[in-house]
Amino acid sequence: MKYNPNEIEAKWQKFWKENQTFKTDNISDKPKYYVLDMFPYPSGAGLHVGHPLGYIASDIFARYKRQRGFNVLHPQGYDSFGLPAEQYAIQTGQHPAITTEENISKYREQLDRIGFSFDWSREVRTSNADYYKHTQWIFTQLFDAWYNKESNQAEKIETLVALFEQSGNANVQAVSDEGINLFTADQWNQFSVEEKELMLLKYRMTYLAETEVNWCPALGTVLANDEIKDGLSERGGHPVVRKKMKQWSMRISAYAERLLQGLESIDWTESIKESQRNWIGKSVGASVVFNLKESDDTIEVFTTRPDTIFGVSFMTLAPEHDLVLKITTDEQRAAVEEYIEATAKRSERDRMADVKTISGVFTGAYAEHPFTKEAIEIWIGDYVLAGYGTGAVMAVPAGDTRDYAFANHFDIAIKNIFNQDISEEAYAEKDGFVLENSDFLNGMNCKEATKKAIEELEAIGQGKGKVNYRLRDAVFSRQRYWGEPFPVYYVDGLPKMIEQKHLPILLPEVEKYLPTEDGQPPLGNAAVWAWDTVNNCVVENSLIDGKTVFPLELNTMPGWAGSSWYWMRYMDPQNTEAFASKEALNYWQNVDLYIGGSEHATGHLLYSRFWNKFLKDLNYAPTEEPFQKLINQGMILGTSAFVYRIEGTNTFVSKDMITDQKVQKLYAYVGLVNSSSELDMEGFKAWRPDYATAEFVLNANGKYVVGHEVEKMSKSYYNVVNPDDICEEYGADTLRLYEMFLGPLEQAKPWNTAGISGVAGFLKKLWKLYADDNGVVVVDEEPTKDMYKSLHKTIKKVIEDIENFSFNTSVSQFMICVNELSQQKCNHRAILEPLAIVVSPYAPHIAEELWSMLGHKESIADAEFPEFKQEYLVESSKEYPVSFNGKMRFKIELPLDLTEEQIKEIVLADERTQAQLQGREPKKVIIVPGKIINLVG
Q1: Which of 91, 546, 794, 916 gives a 20 to 30 Å CA spacing to 749?
Q2: What is the per-residue pLDDT across 447-499, written as a single tens digit (0 to 9) for each?
Q3: What share of the chain is helix, strand, coil (3-state, %, to 5)?
Q4: CB burial class (10 A; 0-12, 13-18, 19+) of residue 577?
Q5: Burial, 870: exposed, middle or buried (Cβ in 10 Å; 0-12, 13-18, 19+)?
């Protein structure tokens, strides 16, 4: 019987599928455990060997937990709405649904081949109508809710309406738009229906507003900050500009403090928690109102240093600030407008990150200091962001490094308010000084002056103490086709929600996936996209009459809509009435272990926590946090290959032959390079048409040697390794073990196919413990103590490793164990049966086959994980070195429980001792129990 991985793996994958081995029930007497991977976007490129890393780790843990007696939920699905499919549709005219289906089929085939224990009966796809109808419903719940600061949670909008009806809005503690006019109950009750709706929009958890967005003209859509890199769209590398658009937004800012506090209750890495803390950006300080000279307008700023109020030398507004064009003087208008246009081409992320560039323009306007009434110049600068705080800062160069550089660059006078030297740099510390040149704050330290400054600002009505957050409301509209349609229609410009019983609102067919000629989103191309309020269905646009038929929303939801609640759908995916039943939600609660990439720290992970908390507030979700433990797998890096072309030619120089030529460093497909870094030159010429006429400058051995760099595995770098190829040549179990063996799960590590043969060899050696060419060799004899010791060392180590997610060291231990058992000539059932179970989470196919060979009919996935027994590691005997006058002559194995007299008697009677003594009596016998025996004289 030979080990044939391809045959064995196909057999057991078929068995798992036919027997639904990993199907999970929502009712069980066992404790539950929910293991989840961040579900993939099914791109056309399929999986490379870096993608399954986290899946393999979660699969090991899921299989292990199942064998430890847990009812394990381990589902999988697809985040199948997204920009890549839409861009492909624009290029080819093929419907994104067709592309997505083809890509999913490819992904499923690859995932199945690696042998994951997913419960595929629970598969979800965000682009399926039976899924996104619930996303649409959640949106309507957000629309019909407001955030009550008193109860510190979201509530149904009806409770807010009741407050308005009873006492107006003067005493309502709500997260809402700024600058809402006060009204009494009588005034509210006299408002028209339209006036009431307009007012409620200022309070709803999701609302329409003019918002600064990242607009990508080439893609015809708004992009999130994490979809932009260096001012260009991550997809396609197109320019992105800032512009104002009417968009749906989500009041995630209402949850800022709860999102911060919740981090203390979950088991996440400190680096991810810190990323979220920084993104939320809690600051404690004061709101200060500056009056404008020669104007009735005011500028409100938030500052964490109200103690420095007398050091204000100028003010800076974000270029997008509403007041900029209003206050700019005629003399400065051209310069200001030019600066605003230039700033619009830079993303917020770039502006925040760029601390070296100093730029700005004076508006020509002045503000008035709240205490001294001095005139303060008002500038604009792109280091101030419209969405952070109020979009305005009071600049105190004496105490702020960036303000100091700005003032020096534009020759603005700096007021020193500290008893410290600021001739060379700002004094940015919060201690070690007392204030001077600060009127009633003179002589005070930071803490004393902060309290006093806030008191005085409140006394004159120009400020108050305030907690501020960097976290801004999330823009929720996208000008795309391939996304969830909003369940929204418009009556006289006001949004109305479509009731749950009429959902889903299906994505319509369109002729073109590009925006319309007049700039509307792609859904503007749909001919059947209006809502009939009588028949409650989508009808042709030509029927819109403003009475019973109304236009539908043309934007679609962003990619993060469907991924912000999907873990709950897995709990009850066939439910047609609700996103999940109360029973299923209460049983599974939340995800116990979540594995995915750290790049989602301030996107998906933040939005998911927000939606989960919202659904908890409305009693739809059972827990405050969605993911109890989070692990971010590291990246498997590729080894890129480079060729060197002499500039202006099609001649390529071997790396070891480059002298002073000017060469271009170009990527080469790694499949054309052997283990000695030598290029297949004919294959290279055939690879791409532009290389067909390539000529080569070879080294002394007549070879072309490429260069290498370890970097991200990417199709564009031609360094991708396909897992299908590894499975075909070595088997899926080898791939699984090797990916774990590469290094700690959370660290980045380079892929090296050359190292995989060692793991493949280990599996062959494991097989030989159970079978030879003639069949199974397992016997029912009692194993030796050493065999038990090898087994239980491994059980102990693997339990510790899996519980601590140290999967790489388990693979090492398997190798040690198999080597020891091979040397011990172990073929004993009492050892090999539990060994197969211990190996099975890592290499499930070979383990299933070995388990079957041992006579078992059920799957090894249902076998009980072996119990570690300490007694097998307790040494019962000791091999003593026996020395004569300090020189060791032989060794003797003796029980550890012998007394010194018993040891002495046995040693003296040993014939090897008699031969050394030659009839003499030793003068002294030195015995250290458990260590040494030494005979003297």
Answers
A1: 794
A2: 999 999 999 999 999 999 999 998 989 999 998 999 999 999 999 999 999 99
A3: 40, 20, 40
A4: exposed
A5: exposed
Which phi-psi region, left, alpha or beta, contains residue 428 (left: φ > 0; alpha: ψ -120 to 50)? alpha
Q: How far apart are CA 245 and CA 683, in angstroms?
A: 52
Which phi-psi region, left, alpha or beta, contains residue 236 (left: φ > 0; alpha: ψ -120 to 50)?
left
Q: At what angle do helices 52-67 and 785-803 cross, to 10 degrees?
A: 120
Kindly give the residue spans of alpha helices, DSSP state H, lying in 423-501: 446-459
Q: pLDDT tens digits for 22-60?
A: 999 998 999 999 999 999 998 888 899 999 999 999 999
Phi, psi of 468, rounded to the nearest 5 degrees: -120, 155
CB 61 within 8 A of CB 804: no
In sequence order, what are the residues at sequence separation of 6 or more whose Cβ sits closer than 8 angstroms to the Cβ of residue 804?
A: none
Structure tokens at 721: 């390794």
> At 226, is the pLDDT very low, low, confident or very high (cuts 50, 70, 90)?
low
Residues 337-356 have pLDDT tens digits of 999 998 888 877 777 777 78
3-state secondary structure of 749: strand
> What is the C-alpha separation between 831 and 784, in angstroms, rounded?
10
Peptide bond into 40 cis (omega under 30): no
Closest CA to 832 of 813, 845, 847: 847
**Chain mean position to CA 209:** 29
The backbone torsions φ and ψ at residue 228, rounded to the nearest 5 degrees and listed phi first, read -125, 140
CA distance 622 to 306: 42
Query: DSSP per residue over 573-610, as a string?
Result: TT-SSSSS-HHHHHHH-SBSEEEE-GGGTTTHHHHHHH
Is 715 labeled as ligand-binding?
yes
Q: Residue 71: what residue type?
A: N
293 vs 179, 303, 321, 699, CA distance in Å?
A: 21, 21, 18, 76
Q: Which of 829, 817, 861, 823 is nearest to 842 (CA)?
A: 861
- Can you give the pLDDT at residue 16? 98
Q: Which of 181, 183, 177 is nearest to 204 (CA)?
A: 177
Residue type, 492: D
For 503, the token pair is 């959902």
Q: Please, which residues have CB within 8 angstroms of residue 643's CB and are 6 or more apart in sequence?
A: 652, 665, 666, 667, 668, 679, 684, 704, 706, 707
Q: What is the DSSP string of 193-254?
A: HHHHHHHHHTTBSEEEEEEEEEEETTTTEEE-GGGEETTEETTT--B-EEEEEEEEEE-GGG
Q: What is the pLDDT of residue 514?
A: 85
Residue type, 632: N
User: What is the CB neighbour count within 10 angstroms for residue 656?
Assistant: 14
By residue count, the chain amounts to 937
Structural domains of the chain sorted by starting position, each given as residue range(s) with its CATH number in brackets: 30-128+560-597+604-632 (3.40.50.620), 138-262+475-503 (no CATH), 282-469 (3.90.740.10), 636-712 (no CATH), 875-936 (3.10.20.590)
What the block records as the tokens of 186 is 């009588």
| Calpha distance 891→631 (Å, rounded) | 50
What integer pLDDT is reported at residue 835 of this predicted model?
98
The pair of structure tokens assigned to 838 is: 């211990």
CA distances from 294 to 196, 390, 394 (A): 36, 22, 19
Contact 143, 204 (CB under 8 A): yes
Q: Give the C-alpha separation, 354 to 437, whole Å.
A: 33
The C-alpha atoms of residue 281 and residue 256 are separated, in whole angstroms, by 9
